[in-house]
Amino acid sequence: MNKSIDILSIGEVLIDFIGHEVNTSINRTKDYHRFLGGSPTNVAVNASRLGLKSVLVASCGQDGLGDYIIRKLKSNGVNTAQIGKSEHLPTSVIFVSKSTETPDFIPYRQADCEINEEQLPDAVLAEAKIFHTTCFALSKNPARTTILNRAKKAKELGLQLSIDLNFSERIWPNREEAKQVIKEYLSYDPLVKLSEDDCYRLFAEVKSEEFIFDYFHALGASTICLTKGKNGVVVSDVKEGLLFQKAIPLEEIKDTTGAGDAFWTGFLYAQLHEYDLNTSITIAQKLAAIKLQNIGKLPDNLDISQLLH
User: Fold this and answer.
1) Please, are residues 57 and 119 in contact by the beta-carbon 8 Å criterion?
2) Tally of helices (H runs) and strands (E runs) in the chain
3) Are 78 and 56 in contact, with CB atoms under 8 Å apart?
4) Predicted confidence band at 1 (pLDDT cuts at 50, 70, 90)?
5) Predicted confidence (pLDDT) per residue in 207-238, tens digit
6) Strand runs (DSSP E) across 114-255, as ranges?
7) For residue 112, how far is the Cα from the chain centroid?
8) What is the rounded CA–CA span in Å between residue 138 and residue 134?
9) Residue 175 is inside which H or E element, if any?
10) What's the burial of 253, exposed, middle or buried (CB within 10 Å: 0-12/13-18/19+)?
11) pTM for the whole thing?
12) Rounded CA separation 70/258 (Å)
């Protein structure tokens, strides 16, 4: 495919204010450091750093934080032509505790959901290979309607769809509405990434792997990737069945924020290069391991060849 965009990443762009003290509650965190954030944003930046051509479709405020976002994206080689700037809403921010487990967070959502169809014209879709989004992005309009409408068109144009089901009831209080929207998106057979934490939040109880895979396969997804933290990764594929890989052992974890996004970028990178599922999981795990040992973005001296051997 001779297309000019490898990954079209659609959804939330925001500022993560990540606590400076490790494993300290937000209540007791004194200092925060500013980072470019948002799951689709992380995927777009990571993809660019792996040498892929990535475009971010998102919205920020017409303010200093919005200017910071555009500057950081450009410095990381991400195409910002499809980013909108809201005239009436400020840039979204999230305060995050720094944790070696699942971090706590407080979202202040503003401009991130102001994504309109003009930002995703047919001409841009036609140039892309992968159409990626998140549960977070689908949680509010107008972004939800835009993404669902353009996902349908993307499928018609032959793009591979993708979604990170990063559900949180703090972002999307109405679980039943979330399930209906997820159902619509999954009817386009996207590659699905979700974590055990996501599943617990979506179903409000612990579900078995069998239940999780049966549930999402029934909605139309052929390939489902369930990340289990230190317990590794399980992929269920309708053709290849179940695949399991142990987590890569690490002596030190510096920051878990963005590790799932690094994992998924690695997986999408491998799929774009037509690696098999086992190799795709390995590459994804290696990239996540690098992220777990770095605060903020992936390191500047990232060597792709390390991921491939």
Assistant:
1) yes
2) 11, 13
3) yes
4) low
5) 999 999 999 999 999 999 999 988 999 999 99
6) 128-134, 160-164, 191-195, 223-227, 233-237, 241-245
7) 14
8) 7
9) helix 175-186
10) middle
11) 0.94
12) 19
Structure-token match 């690094």, residue found: 262
CA distance 178 to 199: 12
Which pair of tokens denotes residue 230? 């230190």
| 40-49 pLDDT, tens digit each | 999 999 999 9
Nearest of 196, 189, 191, 201 to residue 212 by alpha carbon: 196
Alpha-carbon gap, residue 269 to 53, rounded angstroms: 11
Q: How many CB atoms lie within 10 A of CB 183?
A: 13
- The total of other beta-carbon atoms located within 10 Å of residue 104's CB is 17
d(CA 232, CA 5): 31
CA distance 236 to 242: 5
3-state SS of the chain: helix, strand, coil percent to 5? 40, 25, 35
Instruction: Tell me the pLDDT tens digit for each residue of 73-131.
Output: 999 999 999 999 999 999 999 998 877 777 788 999 999 999 999 999 999 999 999 99
pLDDT at res. 198:
96
